[in-house]
């Protein structure tokens, strides 16, 4: 049976018996900063959660998202001033696939064998392992 994880510190997870595990995957690349957050990060998250925990981007803009867009527009090349903020890797990869196809006018998407890109249809088709079969027949995905 799986261990019951109860806390994290740095790059380590601890189960209910106190056993330490090094998180070599960053929880499928979702905890890249580790489990020990700077106090200023915690305070910023708590402030936003108390003011407005979520706002659908198609409904309106929130200050923190507008500030991030402005900062990104300052550091990106050319006249790039539109940004997507997906909630997870699958959604990010779905967007990347669509943007690449729209921008290039080409259908082929190259991805590596022994790779994982997400659980929705497009990223599953790009995935280079046994999970690809769950995407069904998806044209244009080439494994290298």
Q: How would you characterize the overall build of this protein?
A:
This protein has a three-stranded antiparallel sheet with strand order 1-2-3, with no helix packed on it. Strands 4-5 form a two-stranded parallel sheet. The model has no long low-confidence stretch (mean pLDDT 91). It has five helices and five strands; from the N terminus they run E-E-E-H-H-H-H-E-H-E. It has helices at residues 26-29, 39-51, 63-75, 89-104, 121-126, and strands at residues 5-9, 12-15, 20-22, 109-111, 141-143. It is flat and about 50 Å long. The protein is α+β, with helices and mostly antiparallel strands and 144 residues long.
| Record field, number of beta strands | 5
Give the helix tally: 5
Q: Sheet with the most strands?
A: 3 strands, antiparallel
Strand content: 5-15%
Order of helices and strands: EEEHHHHEHE
List segments where confidence is low: pLDDT < 50 over at least 5 consecutive residues: none
Specify the overall morphology.
Answer: flat
Question: Fraction of residues in helices?
Answer: 25-40%
Content-based structural category: alpha+beta
Indicate the mean pLDDT: 91
Across the major sheet, the strand order is 1-2-3
Span between N and C termini? 36 Å
Q: Kindly provide the radius of gyration, computed on alpha-carbon positions and rounded to a whole number of angstroms.
A: 19 Å
């Amino acid at each position: 049976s799986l261990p019951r994880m109860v806390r994290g510190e740095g790059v380590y997870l601890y189960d209910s018996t106190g056993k330490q595990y090094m998180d070599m995957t960053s929880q499928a690349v979702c905890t890249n900063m580790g489990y020990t957050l700077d106090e200023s990060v915690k305070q910023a998250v708590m402030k936003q959660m108390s003011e407005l925990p979520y706002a659908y981007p198609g409904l309106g803009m929130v200050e923190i998202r507008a500030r991030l867009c402005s900062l990104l527009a300052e550091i990106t090349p050319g006249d790039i001033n539109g940004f997507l903020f997906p909630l997870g890797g699958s959604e990010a990869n779905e967007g990347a696939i669509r943007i690449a196809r729209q921008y290039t006018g080409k259908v082929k998407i190259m991805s590596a064998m022994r790779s994982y890109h997400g659980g929705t249809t497009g990223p599953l088709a790009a995935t280079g392992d046994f999970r690809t079969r769950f995407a069904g027949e998806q044209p244009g995905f080439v494994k290298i």
